[in-house]
Amino acid sequence: MIRRRKSEARRTFVLDTNVLMHDPSAIFRFKEHDVFLPMIVLEELDKGKKGLSEVARNVRQVSRFLDELMAGATKEEIDRGLPLPAMTGFYDGAQGRGRLYFQTRLLADALPDSLPGNTADNAILANALALQQTLPPDTVTLVSKDINLRIKAAVIGIHAEDYSSDQVLDDVNLLYSGQTALPADFWEQHSKRLDSWQEEGRTFYRVSGPDAASWYPSQCLCLDGDGGFEALVRRREGDDAIIELVQDFRTAKHAVWGITARNREQNFALNLLTDPGIDFVTLLGTAGTGKTLLALAAALAQVLDRGLYREIIMTRVTVPVGEDIGFLPGTEEEKMTPWMGALMDNLEVLTQTEGGEWGRAATAELLRSRIRIQSLNYMRGRTFLRKFIILDEAQNLTPKQMKTLITRAGPGTKMVCLGNIAQIDTPYLTETTSGLTYVVDRFKPWAHGGHITLLRGERSRLADFASEHL
């Protein structure tokens, strides 16, 4: 059992099972503070270790971490608490000040009569209350991703917190948008140290100053006013940056597979999607902003017209909005078909040819021959060569799942992640912990990545009104 002098400022965090199921490395993320694992948590971990799901893999990883920490430890050492390694390399010899404690004896049941039943949650609450009786109450914190458990803890006087170490940002409003508006006097401020030139029909500018120092590669720059100005940051070195005027995809002359941009953000998106020098693109936006249509049109243009990629691979997370419809018969592609309604809807838009019904059917058949629908469940261990990969509904992926998928990309492959972080259907994922938020933040300094947040809906006036008022 934990023994601590009152003068110590160290805190004790009681972990719920779902925290470890969500992040196996959670026990190492509390810096100099102590971690307490009730025995019921170990029992629940044991029940969840079987299977091929992401949760089961996380549970097995937790068990391996605990096994390594306990290797060679005696019963007396376990009772005194196992020293936790520092987060910078779990087992590289660097030791943290915190300790890991297990429930080694039956604690006095201090639960009030208002909590009926003998559930796992109540057992965890009982452990937290017992610790409060032996330690200063303000140093004991219950950490859980279960909102109801945190509510019950607050009701009976236990300080409870959500697990926030996996949050990419403190506030989703701080998420990188991929676009910045230049000040109205931008040209006057930089006129003395400004170079411009043209290469192969493209216009470049070299800009120096404090503004350029804060830009990221492939960041979209815009300036309102007479004629407007839209550019992409191509390279940045210190206070110097090279920017390039973007191509205008709003005109029919520069349409991408018959699709033209309807607003500034869509124009930036098409520039990122059609640039072979950008390997990874993320598009965020609410329903109806054109994420899937733009990505699919750019993919078809580069696969069929320019031959930059061999084929298109579309995939998404199979998380239902309502009740699950159960198992589906057929091949992998046939099982994925019900989840790919967005693909079929957008193919109808892209196959509106003038050749009548026969011409549309022939075009649709040609497109389907170059588009493969695959499940995320079978991505581990694969390598994609010269593919254009479109990941739809990416907001439902965890950071670990996102890493698993992105690392499948081989030479010549481009990956596009689409999603709306306001519509997350995966349990325990939030806007600040989503894998899509994670990659947007981590890829912003990379020279071969690009991101843009689409702001305006272009689906229909009905959809736009519903998005704004419902």
Give an overview of the whole structure.
The protein has 470 residues and is an alpha/beta fold. It folds into three domains: 150 residues, 5'-nuclease (Rossmann fold), CATH 3.40.50; 69 residues, Beta Barrel (Elongation Factor Tu (Ef-tu), domain 3); 207 residues, P-loop containing nucleotide triphosphate hydrolases (Rossmann fold). Helices cover 32% and strands 20% of the residues. It contains 16 helices and 18 strands. Strand 8 and strand 9 form a beta hairpin.
CA radius of gyration is 27 Å
Strand content: 15-25%
Report, as a whole number of angstroms, the end-to-end distance.
53 Å
Strand order of the largest sheet: 3-4-2-1-5-6
The description of the largest β-sheet is: 6 strands, mixed
The total of helices stands at 16
Shape: elongated
Average residue pLDDT: 83
Domain count: 3
Share of residues in helices: 25-40%
- The stretches of 5 or more residues where confidence is low (pLDDT under 50) are 88-95, 320-325
- Count of individual beta strands: 18
**In the CATH hierarchy, what is the architecture of the largest domain at level 2?**
3-Layer(aba) Sandwich
Classified by CATH, the class of the largest domain is: Alpha Beta
CATH topology of the largest domain: Rossmann fold
Summarize the structure.
This protein has 470 residues and is α/β, with parallel strands linked by helices.
SSE layout:
Elements lengths: L11 E4 L1 H6 L11 E4 L1 H9 L6 H17 L4 H6 L1 E4 L9 E8 L17 H15 L5 E4 L3 H9 L4 E2 L17 E3 L4 H5 L3 E6 L2 E7 L1 H4 L6 E4 L5 E9 L2 E6 L18 H10 L6 E6 L5 H15 L5 E6 L15 H5 L4 H10 L5 H14 L1 E3 L13 E6 L6 H8 L7 E6 L15 H9 L5 E6 L6 H9 L1
Parallel strand pairs: 1-2, 1-5, 2-4, 5-6, 7-10, 13-17, 13-18, 14-15, 14-16, 16-17
Antiparallel strand pairs: 3-4, 8-9, 9-12, 10-11, 11-12
